[in-house]
Write a structure and sequence with these properties.
The chain is about 60% helix and about 0% strand. The protein is mainly alpha-helical. Helix 2 packs antiparallel against helix 3, helix 3 packs antiparallel against helix 4 and helix 3 packs across helix 12. The chain is globular. The N terminus is likely disordered.
Amino acid sequence: MEARGTQSAMPVESDFRSILKGQNLKPFLQRSDSQAWWLLLVNYSLLAVAFALPILWFNIGTVIISLILLGNRQLGLGILMHDCVHAALFNSKTLNKRIGEWCCAGPILAQFEGYRRYHLRHHAKAGTTDDPDYPNYRPYPVAKASLRRKLIRDTFGITGVKNLALLMLMHAGVVEYDMAYKSANEKRALSIWDMLVNLAKNLAPALLFHIALALLLWRLGYVQFYGLWWIAYLTTFQFFSRLRNAAEHAGVPDLLNTDPRLHARTVYARWWERLTVAPNHVNYHLEHHWLPAVPPYRLAAFHAWLKQVGALNDTSIPVGYGEVLKAMVRPARHA
């Protein structure tokens, strides 16, 4: 697969949007507060399980499972924040903003409004070089050794420390909020006071969540386990985020084509992949780019409908993220 914009030979509809014209899409666009609250409850429940396991049975196995679950559900909160940015999780725009900001973005130190501005540009410019996420995907496919180095840096926290430092600069207003981390080269000159004010404002949801979490663990007599959150944040969260992020657009048939069947990818995720790299239906990414207003809990049904009408007949859907990893790596050259 080629990710640098070469034209694909795959026969596709000249205008992918026309497939949806005149169709009854209301069933796929209907938002449900009960399903939204259920998703949020599942994510927070799994976070609770992640802490409970090593507290109740402390050994290397439960700690590893805890770090996997924590990294997965930190990613899960990021996905729900993303859905709230599209106002696609709850019925109310206000509820999407409040829950997205305080319950989803805050715990993972994300900035709801900054991410909203950045991500909506991604959707508006997807399939072009003006996509702010384009630098994340342009290098793929990469050499196997290059991908291995990236994943090792993620696993051992090197990527996490670097990203956290850049994130603090974004919250301080020194650099623009940028998930491709390219704005770090254009720093603003701000006073210490201005940076402190920006940090206090942008990190208020994060501070509230983490003070509450630390106090809860302290009251239970297990405050030392609070550190697991940060170990996961710097390691498994970064590892899963890279794979999820790359799976969406890296090594696709034609990164510079506005048809989502060519510039985005859907993956059939196995149960254990939903507990690692693909929480909250995020694996249906092609469908999300086709119709971003579809709530996450309706993406599978939208995918089934697109298959039924033949819109995905010439679209390859990988089974599992192992196939995605193959698409991200350049074939080795033989002498």
